[in-house]
Amino acid sequence: MPNHTPLFKRLGLVNHPRFVAKPPAQPGTTIITSHNPATGQTLAGVRADTRASYARTLDTAERAFRSWRSVPAPVRGQLIRALGDAFRAHKADLGMLVSLEVGKIIAEGQGEIQEIVDIADFAVGLSRQLPGHVFPSERAGHRIIEQWLPLGPIGVISAFNFPAAVWAWNATLAAVCGNPIIWKPSLLAPLTALACNAIATRVAADHGHPDIFQLLLGTDEEIAKPLVADKRLPLISATGSTRMGRAVGQAVAARLGRSLLELGGNNAVILAPDADLKLAIPSIVFGAVGTAGQRCTTTRRLIVHEKLANKVCTSLVNAYAQVMTKIGDPTRPGTLVGPLINAHAVASFEHAVAAARAQGGTILAGGARVKRPSLKGGHYVQPTIIRAPATNKLPIAQEETFAPILYIFTYKTTQQAIDIQNSVPVGLSSAMFTESYRTAEAFLNNDGSGSDCGIANINCGTSGAEIGGAFGGEKETGGGRESGSDSWKIYMRRQTSTLNFSGSIQLAQGITFQ
Ligand code: NAD
Asked: Whose CA is closest to 121, among 176, 63, 71, 69?
């Protein structure tokens, strides 16, 4: 068994008071055990929070807010600049930890940490330009201004598949906006969370604000649900399944709090008859099998014009045959597909394949677990292609199965393709490959009749968003936006002020009140 202690040491885990090098075999709920999905072996453990440490964490965040909000935004930006530098310095090690803990291949593990660096850069720029507006007043000698103010401690709940970047999207923007952060990560990736939060806390302490990044680790019952219900947190940002979002959204709404929901996706690529297949095929393969199909933006459905269907199926089957030889240990260079996160995910994969078969789907590639002796103990499945029957009816494809399954549908008209694309309950990412301006505009039509997703790309796959644009989706994906553009606004409260320098009292709408 490989010795990960040097890696854990370099990341400051070994001496961390919450780190448990050898968790007991039956840990209960006081220690969260981290498993390597590529081998099934235990990596280490992290001490869980208790009701008492929960209470301390919330008190600390309230105190931290009172001092942090008074730090000028450009000075807050300097702390985030140092945070970005610290993650740059630890990129290789943290990327490896992500690979070990959630099974991403090395390039993707490191890409995840690069996203932290990128969003930190973005946040530093933002800290110098958090804008406001001035509006003309109808009253002489008056001005109306709109300013944005820090909101309060922010609760961040994250999913296993982006165990570091999603926290950073929230934490860096929320911090330059003047808010402390309390992070409740997925219990499937506690070591990544502990390492990232420890780095952030060290940087924050060096800048005199040791308490702005806090971590709460514990079960949903003990920690996450109380956090969601806690009135001291004006915003809960939650990333995960639609099931989770429904529960969190309702609990936050019940206390009239604000929620930012980033939930599941069931993303499609449309191939128009004039699609450039040299661009499309690699984009579909990366989108469908990258991260072993465990991205919210994974390509799960391919909607291909009937003229191209057979040719595209053949190209994809050939490409998948190559990919099958690159399934393996995600920490090895050359691997393209790592494991699923756990045995439960493998069971969901098998359930979806069986359902697709029963519903008339044809398995063109994959469809089974990988049973190579060298991969024993790991949760590996084959990237799978399933062609829908001629009726295009395949109910299982309406669901997000977090595994590398690509369902193929055919269509005759552009409108039919868009209708199939929009027929699922979620609306995160979508893409079309075409050389025709008119077809592309039908997909992006600004009357809203095209793609109904938060992301709609032309000649570019569904996954791999950059941090510059706002990220998020519509319908049951939750409607939240994170990362670039004006996503920062959710972490602030808006205040409208009318300033009267006329020396007289005038009422709006011309009302006189003598
Ligand atoms: P999950 O819903 O099982 O868990 C996500 C997080 O929510 C975890 O931290 C979990 O502990 C917490 N949680 C679950 N139920 C809760 C409750 N009732 N109250 C409070 N917290 C609760 O999701 P997962 O399996 O970790 O991640 C995969 C899912 O996340 C997929 O559906 C994927 O599409 C989605 N996802 C979405 C985005 C996005 O930006 N839209 C990004 C990454 C992942």
From this structure: 176
